[in-house]
Each structure stands twice: as structure tokens, then as C-alpha cells.
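Handout, section B. The chain below has 352 residues.
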Amino acid sequence: MNPLEHQLKYPLGDTLPAAGAAIEVAPGIRWIRMPLPFALDHINLWLMRDRFAGRDGWTIVDCGVSRDEVKAHWEQVFATQLDGLPVVRVIVTHMHPDHIGLAYWLTERWSVPLQMSATDFTTAHLFVEGKAISGGERMATHFARNGMTDPASLEGVRARTRYYPQLVPRVPAHFNRILDGDTLHIGGHAWQAIAGYGHAPEHISLYCQALNVVISGDMVLPRISTNVSVTDTDPESNPLQLYLDSLDGYAGLPADALVLPSHGRPFVGLHTRIAQQHAHHADHLERVKQACTGQARSAYDIVPVLFKRKLDLHQMTFALGEAIAHLHMLYYQGALVRETGTDGIVRFRVPA
């Protein structure tokens, strides 16, 4: 266990919902888990007892990836966990495949609307329709520019042209927009929408004062650090600054709120975890700065500074994106200068 986890409280201990089953974590809120085909092998999804558009039923928050195995688990949930009631709407926190993958199937199966941010809805459509491809030749060029020169790795990146559509084959044609600060009425309670940036284009978390519950999505996770990457679709961005600034949007929430994260276990200790994240990235930024002192470094050079374990190609795409994000934050702060070598690789160094 990560030692920082000991600073958090887990009201349910090590209890996890079985496949196709649910655990009530707060009045009217049930926790289910779905498998993922990655090293991060699960996503937490939420069922919320609701009355929407004049119908009693359940609101689903986040969907899982589009795989037959996940659909089968959902069917078991429908048969055993809904108390004979229908699904009345689907809410998606953001456009990453494990969150939006089955939104099309769930909304069509139950003939219900999708609610999410406009930025992530539009971005998901661009990825599914091939108008923005996180992979393929453009990603290979992006990574090569940032120091990845190994031919086998670059070829593996070029082959990832179908990564997103394989997990998200379609996105609903219509949606209802959620904006930062909106109030959603779910199950007779008011839920405040909190927009977050850096991890996704416009991530939406939800907070209910009456229940003292935060559905944090991927913005606040108990054990792992949220991935924050510079991608080939936005190569000059500064997402780490956006992410850290977004965490301050939770500062006004109660310290004893129950946090329902997308990965890991429900926990109490929101302010503690946010402080841990700030400290984690401050440490990483200092290590990156030290590595760039006296010698210009590419993002690929920085990956082993940030990640000590062996990485497969899938993990490397996230790690390299995160290394660029740390370099960019320091660069935009003026702590590093950026230069492009005769080999076409971008490197960063502490100015003399």
C-alpha cells in the first residue's frame, strides 16, 4: 500500500463490490465496479436513485469501456440491482474511454439522455470520427520530437490508430450540457457541478452538500496520481498548471466529505489528498528541474526521473505525456528554457 494512503480513511475498509453487484455507499447511491483491459484493471461507476423527467429510476454516473464482458456485467446489474426500476439518465464525468465507452449503448438501451460537459462531448466525437487521433503518425511525430527515438516504440505508437474507437465505437448524437457551477437535482438532492482541467478537456465532478458526498471522477484519486499529459492534439499546452489550479476548486468543500473516486476505494480525507497531490507534483517538478541543470533534457530523458518502474508501451504513452507536462509547467513559469536541436528533438534546461 502507498504509505500516503494511511493518512486517508476508508469507511468500507477493503470491501469491494462483486462483479455485477452493488454496495450502498450513501443513501440512494450504489457503487459498482467494471473491469478494464489495462494495468489499471477497474473503474468505479455509480448508481443514484432518482426521479427524472417524471419517472422513478436510477441515474448512472460513468459507463465503462465498450466490451461484451462489461455489457454482460451491466445486464446483471440491471437484473439484480435496480429494484425493478429503469435507468432514467446517464451522466459522464469526462471523455476518456473508461468513462464514456458505453454511453451510446446505455442511452440507447434505456432511451435516456446523456449529460456531460460540451468540451468533452465534442472531443469524444472528434476522436471516434477520426478527426482527432490520439495515436498513429501524429502521436509518433509528437513523441519523436520529445525524444522517443527507439524504432520499435515509435512503430508501436503508429499502430495505435484504433485505440480510442475500439473502446468507444460510438458517442450519442445528442446530450444535455453540464457547466461549472450548475446544480443538478438527483434523487431529491442538489448536486453542484465542479469543472476540472488538465486531466481531460472539461472534467465534471459532483458535490452534494446534503449528503456530504463528492463524486470526484479522475480528478482526485486515493492511491494513484491522476495522469496529466501533453498530447499530440494540444502539443503546446500547460495541463499540469491547469490541473493543480483545478484542485483548488475543491478547497471549499468539507474535509470530512465522502469521496467517490473512479479508481480505488471510497475515502474520507479530501483536503489531505489534495495536499498530497500538490506535494507530489512539487517534488516531481523539483526533480525535473534538477535533471535539467547543467544539461538539456528531452521529455523522454525525464521519464525515468519520474517513473522508476518498467513501463510497457501503453504506460509509456502516459508517462511521456506526463513528463512533457512537467517540463512545460516549468518552461511557462520561466524556470526552464526550451531549445530544438539539429536532430529535431526538443530539450529543456535551466537557464545559465
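Note. The domain at 3-287 is CATH 3.60.15.10 (Metallo-beta-lactamase; Chain A). Compare this with the example in section A.
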